[in-house]
Amino acid sequence: MFTQHFYNIIDGELDALLQKYQNDELIKKYKNPNQKKSYALLIWFLEFYGRRANYKDFITDGDNDSSCDIIFDNTNNQGEKIFYVVQSKWNTVNNSEKETSRDEILKALNDFETLLHGEKQNVNDRLKVKIKELDKHLKSNGEVKFIFLSLSQYKGNADENINAFIKSDEKIKCDVIDINRIKHDYIDRIYKEIKPLNPLESYQNPEESPITLEIIQENGTVKIEKPFEAYMFLLRPKSIYELFDKYGFALFYKNIRNPLLQSQFNEDIENTVSENPDYFWYYNNGITAIASLLPAIGKQAEKIELTGLQIINGTQTVYSIYRAYKNASNTKRQQMDSRALVTVRLLRSGGKDFDLDVTRYTNSQNPVDDRDFCANDDIQIKLQNASYQTNVWYGKRRDEFRETPDGITEIPNFIFANAYLAYHLQDPVTVLKNHAEELKTGKNLNFISYRDHKDGFYENIFNEKTSFEDMLCAFYILDSISNHTSLENDNFICYEDSFETITYHLLALFSGVFTKYLKSKFDEKINVTKYIIKIYEKHEIEIILKTFIFINSFVEKKIKVTNNKEKTQEKGIKFLYELSHYEKINDDLEGLAISIEDIEGIALEKYNIK
């Protein structure tokens, strides 16, 4: 999603808020449209992150410029009161892609410091009250967090000043929320249905926060001591509901998948816990979770507290119980809690490898892809975040996005991986071999580490050199021929069919030929990757197709043995599956002097492409 596209979404929501609250005194008071939008941005910020509708209790009338302030307090999960001061700066659409001015950040920090020291002049009555509350809080050794909110892009140009400001007082925190942070959080909430971290509250991470569970002890608990400490006990549906209601999808960050949107299995769980709660324990395998700290559980304990909770198996069970409980009447909830039992296996974390192995071996109720086990890797998150700057989103796990906005296409990472492997790593042979292995064993070696399989290729593809821009370029080239009319028989080629052709080999050969073509045609230095992305997105791919026609013709001449079909097939198979034969043709092509007429002439001759 391009920044300006996302800006228009948010700006439209701001306009809707200004219309909704058109009778607000401050909205009427502001004459400057920028002030109105800054005010609306604060309302949006409170409603989106804070889920607070009573915005008038928090927003104060700021200085006579295009910024507004929020001052309010909140209590975190440790019972500590924290004051939040938020200053918003609305930007026009043309400034949404520009970097936030360092001077703006410094001015905001100066305003904040003036506020902290009680030196702010000419303030209104509402702000006076908030400043007094803030002063009292500071004198009680309370914590304050300052947030600068802007619809431009912050790239860290004021980090040094912010860090110095924070170090001056351990009770002061500071954060910059820019349009990119807002976009990531918006995508999480709207399109993944994941609750983003709320900058207006203390971060409640189930991996860090102590969590209290009410357990059922009538049947006792089972304890395993070696090699890793573990317990087995029972929970009521109410406990599952409250757990998900508080932490949401953050409970599953170490799981290999989010709950599936449509699954007969999920519907069966909901129906059983709601309509046949007595049978639930018999029909359901329960939940497996890990925690970094486990308490000793006494025989009469009804509540336990643990830290570092992550549900690694039973995602479908948790989500289905939550949905059933949420939609149930009070009477139905009482029936569920009195009759339904949920088995929980709680393990002490044994480290990343152990936790992943437990996740791998316990997930069997719905099919699991090898790529799902990598979804939480830093490189996968990095690639996906980078994709949010484009209209092609990188799907790192199955059923990750509940929906996508208009104009956005989600492409699974296994498609990106094959295109990148062929084009940038110049290894189309491995693409076909790995696909053959997947058909044979169900294992996708592109997403399996060499530590787990002798032919695992994951680290070769995904490492510090891997960029989304390179992956996007490779995919665009692949898509230019795979999803457009075949040059051979006027049929459309789907992704699966591409493995039955020489598509990936042509893709691998493309880079060198296309670079020569561009240098001949434009006689200037061109960033090939950026150029390909640009022309594809402008739907001007004829130049790509011309290059493929030339390469395809060259390969045919190299492979074809006149009047000997068997020999031709033999050479073709070697070209597809033996790297040395591919490299021989690649070397011949690289050594070839290529002119504009060579490429454009054959495209015109064979397919009338001008």
Provide an overview of this structure.
With 610 residues, the chain is α/β, with parallel strands linked by helices. It contains 24 helices and 14 strands. Helix 8 crosses helix 11, helix 16 packs antiparallel against helix 19 (503-522) and helix 22 crosses helix 23. The longest helix is centred in the last third of the chain and has 20 residues, at 503-522. The protein is globular. The two termini are 33 Å apart.
Count of domains = 3
The biggest beta sheet is recorded as: 5 strands, mixed
What is the gyration radius calculated from CA atoms?
Answer: 29 Å
- Individual helix count: 24
Shape: globular
Give the distance, in angstroms, between the N- and C-terminal Cα atoms: 33 Å
Q: What is the topology, as strand order, of the major beta sheet? A: 1-2-3-4-5
Strand % is: 5-15%
Helix-strand layout with pairing:
Blueprint: H1 3-20, H2 25-29, H3 33-50, E1 59-60, E2 67-75, E3 81-89, H4 102-116, H5 125-139, E4 143-150, H6 159-167, E5 172-177, H7 179-191, E6 210-214, E7 222-224, E8 230-235, H8 237-247, H9 264-275, H10 280-283, E9 287-291, E10 303-307, E11 310-313, H11 315-326, H12 330-339, E12 342-348, H13 352-362, H14 378-387, E13 392-395, E14 409-412, H15 413-423, H16 428-441, H17 458-461, H18 468-482, H19 503-522, H20 528-537, H21 542-559, H22 565-577, H23 579-590, H24 596-607
Helix pairs in contact: 1-3, 8-11, 9-11, 15-16, 15-18, 15-19, 16-19, 18-20, 19-21, 19-23, 21-24, 22-23
